Amino acid sequence: MTQEQTQAPSAASSGASATERFRSDKKAGASADPERVDLLAREVIGAVHDTIRRHKVTYDEYNALKSWLISVGEDGEWPLFLDVWIEHVVEEVATEHREGNKGTIEGPYYVPDSPDQGARGSLPMRDGETGTPLVWTGKVTSTDGSPLAGAKVEVWHADNDGLYSQFAPDIPEWNLRASFTTDENGDFEITTIRPAPYQIPTDGSCGKLIAAAGWHAWRPAHIHVKASAPGHELLTAQLYFPGDEHNEDDIASAFKPELMLDPQDAGEHQTISYDFVLDPETKAA
């Protein structure tokens, strides 16, 4: 299939896909302890009360918020809202104990069970896939430096138009999505294309918040990855490219300097080298 300009998904369709994916992949609330629910709910609601008192929120402002919250649900945008404005803090707290690589948010566009390409291979692409070809070499090790053979490296990212397969129409199911299994030395090599930056959907309730607050909707270009190995903690990360104007003001606040790549020109393609160090599960807090 030859790549053609694909229409960006609407907020409603993207939200519906993200909601369906979340419900099929995650066990929402399965481990919620009643005492923790009581503590956290009281503190979150209390923080809202404090904000209302401190800023003398009016009934007009309260009713605007109430209307907006209703619209977020009607538009199916709760996954987008939570992933963009809340998840990065949950990730920060959940991984602060780690000695290995820094991670960041998963985001709404992860799909499990992508096709395995072995230790060296390419992400599935359309004929004529546009974008700068990119060859990534790396290694997966434990915190003691030992290589992790058979580690799994899942990779997914947007195309050259900033669109994700399975969330935008008319893109093959596994386009720019694949898994890799490290060799006996923990090494892998991945061929793909350099992704483009993109705006999160702005035609729904989240877009209304962005417009009302005078924010921008851009995410810098990035490659998503999950690295895992038996007996080690799962690492979820996004890898970024130097020079992107929105690295420092990412709408999702997911950028970290430790996740910056260093692309090198190699003729008609670029090369990157990035390794992963995974924490043994015994180090979990």
Automatic annotation (TrEMBL):
Segments forming domain Intradiol ring-cleavage dioxygenases: 105-280
UniProt-annotated stretches for the region Disordered: 1-34, 97-123
InterPro entries (alphabetical): 1_2-CTD_multi_dom, Catechol_dOase_N, Cchol_dOase_actb, Intradiol_dOase_C, Intradiol_dOase_core, Intradiol_RC_Dioxygenase
Amino acid composition bias (Basic and acidic residues), ranges on this chain: 20-34
Protein family per UniProt: Belongs to the intradiol ring-cleavage dioxygenase family.
Pfam families, A to Z: Dioxygenase_C, Dioxygenase_N
Keyword Transferase found: no
Organism: Barrientosiimonas endolithica
The protein's required cofactors: Fe(3+)
Biased composition, class Low complexity, residue ranges: 8-18
Name of the protein this chain belongs to: Catechol 1,2-dioxygenase
Name of encoding gene: catA
Keywords: Dioxygenase, Iron, Metal-binding, Oxidoreductase
Limits of the Catechol dioxygenase N-terminal domain: 35-101
